[in-house]
Request: fold
Amino acid sequence: MNIGNVTFTDRLICLSPMAGISSASFRGICCGMGASYAPTELVSARSIVYNGLSKSFRFAKIDRSREKVTCIQLFGSDPSDFEKAIDVICSDDRLKDVDIIDINMGCPVSKVIKTGAGSALMKDPALASRIVKASVNAAGRYGKPVTVKTRTGFGAADRSGPEFAKMLADSGAAAITVHGRTASQMYGGTASIEDIAKMRDAVRGYSIPFLANGDIKDGPSAKRMLDITGADGIMIGRAATGNPWIFREVRDYLDGKETKIHPSVDEKCDMLLTELKLTAEDLGEHTAVREMRKVMPHYVRGMKGAAKVKVLLCSADTIEDVRKILDSLRNGNDNGME
Ligand SMILES: Cc1cc2nc3c(=O)[nH]c(=O)nc-3n(C[C@H](O)[C@H](O)[C@H](O)COP(=O)(O)O)c2cc1C
Reply:
């Protein structure tokens, strides 16, 4: 399977981009566990145009030693911002090896949609098309494909998803990912596999990969999504937080090996520390520990003593603090917690 000139030999099973979670370290870990690729979180095209990479580099950072295929996701609402931002990225020594540029047309957060970006672009397909064309043009000069991640519609009654997907393909998108919720649903309710399938059907005649996304949490839910939508691949978001093993588990399941992976308490604690240390290499220890406060509780989910440990992790300041908290968990030294 190809996304532009990038060839994948395995089924596409990707980490879905998540702001505040998809750090370079976590993306590298997920790729090591079998994710085909892992786009960065959304990065503002306009900020890159006005500030260069000074503010954005930490979000756009890619690591070819850990990620097999790299993908930077941009958001914005002005075609020329995308053109210029792609030029900046592809001319930067640290980022120019990026394989894929992805455009965010799904973010429902108000500070993004009020600028006309993210899912707001679903309400303006003509502008969305101009953004894709401008990006394809700019990235094409560097031999890189442009993909789009979007939703099934904007408002609850919006049925324009299939037409929108067709427009994206006609405008030159090299792959399309669809999250099966409308923007107005945010992350509530359940993802509509049927609505994703309708968008998949609309672009079946185009030879570009289609990825389905939303509520995939294990092998069976991944298989159901693939079977019903006929998608070429999937993206997994929230279920991967604190659980990068999910990529191996889902791959095994889809390959007919019904192996449920149960990482031990030690393995989970070790993985948390690995992610934390790698993040500290990028951001410094102080920022890394603070930024991982919202991620760390996911690693200890379901463990005996997790409730109190989660609270302690959220107030940790150093890697040593985290290590000590985890040691108490490993030793079962939880003082009767939970
Ligand atoms: C905290 C959080 C941050 C997100 N940030 C992004 C983002 O930067 N770019 C994007 O395309 N989607 C983003 N999403 C949406 C996810 O990529 C994904 O489409 C959504 O969570 C549904 O998939 P899931 O059910 O597997 O989590 C985010 C979701 C969450 C929960």
Remarks:
- The pocket of flavin mononucleotide is lined by residues 16-21, 41-42, 73, 104, 106-107, 149, 179, 187, 213-216, 236-239 (CB under 6 Å).
- The chain has 15 helices and ten strands.
- Residues 265-330 form a domain with the Non-ribosomal Peptide Synthetase Peptidyl Carrier Protein; Chain A fold (CATH 1.10.1200).
